[in-house]
Design brief:
282 residues; alpha/beta; 7 strands
């Protein structure tokens, strides 16, 4: 399935007119800005985009359909999470993998009950590709099955450890610290035990309890005959991740896990060449 999507993405660079649905439902502006250049480039190639986001994207035209999820005047000027607060209080930082999915569940219900979104879901649209942010929810991924389109996941950060089974990469807790933890890849025995316990807890929470909520919401609002959100998530074709092994430590990755760190940098300058003269030592 992922090979089929890679071929589709390769063809997108040479063929005009594909209909692409982009889902960016989280309220963090940095998340959307990371992949804004990708959407802009797809639009520049002549593809038709339908974008669901909290943040303005271009001007509605024949090739762009914006479905805003919030009034622009209500948007925060910088962000929605004070990271300094979590850095200064480790207890809060350690609870992020649980607090963020709970916050995402609240956001999802707010999104799916909006009139414009409900009208879009009930419309008889068709799409060739669905691009969805994989952060901490399964909110509108049922649209990929509804529209019978390949699903491409994107992530503005290293995916949470409990997403590993959906995109096929190994997140072995014996040497890979869970996201937001203070551990390094050189953990002692007690740190490995703590990391493993937290890994199991977050997996049970996100992969057993959270899907119960999203399955009910998806089947009530998108389609009663849809597969479970876990099965839809497992059908992800490829994953574009804003990471790089030089920053996130080496780990085994499957072919469908593609690191695209720096994608948000649209203009860059070659660093100046500095010549340094060293004294000659006798």
């Amino acid at each position: 399935m992922w090979l089929h999507t890679v071929i589709v993405l390769a063809i997108l660079a040479h063929v005009n007119g594909y209909k692409i649905l982009a889902l960016f439902l989280y309220t963090g502006k940095s998340h959307f800005d990371t992949f804004r250049p990708l959407l802009q480039e797809l639009h520049a190639k002549g593809h038709q985009l339908t974008v669901l986001t909290h943040f303005p994207f271009g001007n509605s035209s024949t090739n762009i359909t914006n479905i805003p999820l919030r009034d622009p005047l209500e948007l925060p000027s910088v962000g929605v999470i004070d990271l300094e607060l979590f850095l200064n209080y480790p207890v809060l930082r350690d609870t992020l993998p649980v607090l963020v999915p709970i916050h995402a569940m609240y956001l999802c219900e707010q999104v799916q009950t909006q009139t414009k979104v409900r009208e879009f879901i009930s419309s008889e649209q068709s799409y060739d590709l669905v691009i969805a942010e994989f952060f901490a929810d399964y909110c509108l991924m049922g649209l990929a099955e509804k529209f019978k389109a390949p699903l491409v996941g994107v992530s503005s950060c290293v995916p949470y450890s409990y997403l590993d089974k959906y995109i096929g990469y190994q997140n072995t807790p014996s040497y890979i610290p869970i996201t937001f933890s203070s551990f390094s890849d050189q953990m002692n025995f007690l740190e490995r035990v703590q990391n493993s316990v937290y890994y199991v807890f977050t997996h049970v929470f996100f992969n057993v309890l959270v899907p119960l909520y999203y399955n009910r919401l998806t089947r009530n609002n998108i389609g009663r005959n849809l597969s479970s959100v876990e099965e839809i998530h497992l059908n992800t074709s490829i994953m574009l991740v804003n990471s790089h092994f030089s920053l996130t430590r080496a780990r085994p990755l499957p072919p469908g896990f593609i690191e695209v760190a720096g994608l948000h940098i649209t203009k860059w300058k070659r660093p100046p060449i500095v010549s340094v003269r060293y004294p000659i030592l006798d």
